[in-house]
Amino acid sequence: MSDLPGIRPQPGIMEIALYQGGAAHIAGRDSVVKLSSNENPYGPSDKAREAAVRATHQMHRYPVTDHLGLRTAIAEVHGIDPDRVICGAGSDEVLQFATQCFAGPGDEVIMTQHGFSMYPILTLAAGATPVVVAEQARRVDPDAVLAAVTPRTRIVFLTNPGNPTGTMLEADQLRHLAEGLPAHVLLVHDGAYAEFADDGFRADLDLVEAFPNVLATRTFSKIYGLGGLRIGWGYASPDLIGVMNRVRQPFNLSTVQLAAAEAAMRDRAHVERCRSENAKWRDWLTAALRDLGLGCDDSRANFVLARFPDQATAHACDDALKEDGLIVRRVGGYGLPEALRITIGDEAACRRVAHVIGRFMAERNRT
Ligand SMILES: *Cc1c(COP(=O)(O)O)cnc(C)c1O
């Protein structure tokens, strides 16, 4: 910090490792298939696109501050109370509200071994201390999480379904976890992939209704195909929402974001199509990878985790996929160096991935 005499960042900030996004380009290639960021290959609802374009006519006006239209759409679709909903620029912003409001210097924030990489970033930015709890064979162990709670614990972050594992805690395990947490600990259920898990999955919303210390977050970036627009939401008790609204900037979502998200939420046919296509090709790719002798857990999300015998093989296979214009994700940063996370694309993309990995494994077995 010698260039900044006297100017000192807050404690924790210089410990943050910059977020690594999924690659989008391969040097020397114009046409690639990006399967590295869990994006929806079918894109958003046409109705969302049209609503966004219409909203551009209002770009000279400030947006509403209360997000009532979007909160009402979310509430009607999910059968929940709009007064318990808060909207953010991606669910990342809602996770940030929670961390900023409820954790600070001297506090501990629990996350699990393969949990989402934003949690340590947000924790350190708030000056708090990340505490990482081991998973059992790529599954969150609720009892291990409960055993890690101390009087200093303020937040437990749970990615469910897990990213990059794709595994999931079911409603009874979630309840067990929530029941075991002391009242001073906020459980954040990050359901970025919840819509892919089951038709009408709502165990996270039920948990919020049963426990005053639970925040459920969802996003428009994954099944709704709006990652580029940045919209997410949270559901919690009115008291928690009231706290978080104090740190939310009044104009955190633009008119265009709000209009697109509301139309996307109401287009249930599009969501259903995306869910069923994803489930079909996820199961197909899982079976294809297992036929090749690779490890692959049942995934409840829109990606699978392919496990290779070792890191060198995983990296060599990643290189072979890149040669063919296919970009997947190395997940060494998530404690899984021997694995590659592959987003479920459309049929053509899934068939190409299976074909290239099959060719790679055949060549490897020959040499
Ligand atoms: C993609 C993702 C998010 C959501 O990010 P947005 O900010 O809503 O785009 C949150 N949690 C996990 C685990 C994710 O994979």
From TrEMBL:
Residues recorded as bearing N6-(pyridoxal phosphate)lysine in the entry: 222
UniProt keyword Transcription regulation present: no
InterPro entries for this protein: Aminotransferase_I/II_large (IPR004839), HisP_aminotrans (IPR005861), HistidinolP_aminotransfase (IPR050106), PyrdxlP-dep_Trfase (IPR015424), PyrdxlP-dep_Trfase_major (IPR015421), PyrdxlP-dep_Trfase_small (IPR015422)
A biological process term (GO) from this entry: L-histidine biosynthetic process
One MF term in the entry's GO annotations: pyridoxal phosphate binding
SUPFAM superfamilies documented for this protein: PLP-dependent transferases
Reaction equations catalysed: L-histidinol phosphate + 2-oxoglutarate = 3-(imidazol-4-yl)-2-oxopropyl phosphate + L-glutamate
EC numbers, comma separated: 2.6.1.9
Co-factor requirement: pyridoxal 5'-phosphate
CDD domains associated with the record: AAT_like
Aminotransferase class I/classII large domain mapped to chain residues: 32-357
Keywords: Amino-acid biosynthesis, Aminotransferase, Histidine biosynthesis, Pyridoxal phosphate, Transferase
Subunit structure: Homodimer.
Family, per entry: Belongs to the class-II pyridoxal-phosphate-dependent aminotransferase family. Histidinol-phosphate aminotransferase subfamily.
Protein name, per record: Histidinol-phosphate aminotransferase
